[in-house]
Amino acid sequence: IGNSGFTYYSGALDDFRVFKRELNTQEVSAMYREYTQSRIYTLNVPARITTGTLDLYNIYNDFSGAYAMRRLFEEYADAHVRIERSSDTTQADLYFDKDGNLTSIENSVETNLTTWLNGSIAEVVKWYDQSGNTNHVEPNSNSPELIVGTVAPFIGRYGIYFGTAEDRELYLANFGNFRTTADQPHTIFAGYRGISFTSAQNLFAIGTPATNQTIAFHPNNGNYYFYSNDMLYGQLDIGTVAFRYSGGGGTSANKKLYLDGVVQNGTGGSTSSLNLATNPPLRIGHYSSRGSGFRFDGNVFHILFANSDLGENLIQNISTSMNAS
Length: 325
Fold this sequence. Notes:
mainly beta; 20 strands; 8-stranded antiparallel beta sheet; globular; 3 helices
């Protein structure tokens, strides 16, 4: 190593691995993520100028759906949310920078949303998917409201308020490209603040209410479940929660929950595997078909869906980046 007879290598060698078989693309990508995220480089080179919150992690292609009021990826340069002004039904797309600052309102020179609204409510009519898969979510009936966070870590950040007074579910009928296998590995990030907690409030759900055919979360009791396969973590009020499943059954070894990058201790679980149906629906904020008891009373600031196990190191880094103002 470093000397091949007449040719010499001059430099540092940090890692060298030889495998007995050809690695597939997914394995190579996972090794690259592990390598780059575990090292800090101090070479005298210009820093990369990023336009998206998550650009440094090279994970754009890992997501099937990515929703936030901030620009997440350099590859996505379109609008982030579409709102309707309650006073006159005027609609406009909103654009944000990577730090969550509002940069543009469609068809307006105004960049101050309060001024543009002029006392009206900003009703959300579409939350755009930034993953490039066009999995945009829209109200199933009534529109939730765009708000500004008032509690850390989301102070000054735009989010969506759902509440329990009426059905305000954001819905996608076919979240098909998320599911590549019935026992779907995944990493899901949800940044939220709960206001009041009653019943089995639903923050998100993928699938249908049948045994092991749903991935969902109830923040009122910290229930990360596959429908009848529950892991309970206690009430979780605020922060970025990450849900990590590596496949192979919903036990604590394969199914983990993190709060702001820190793994939590849960109870329950089962050896039975996830059995996600083909083309499952996606619901955010409420679960309209299961009744008013499944309405989340709170604000959602971001929610990201990766159909792979991204690993603990990336979960910690992404959670920190998404919580930062």
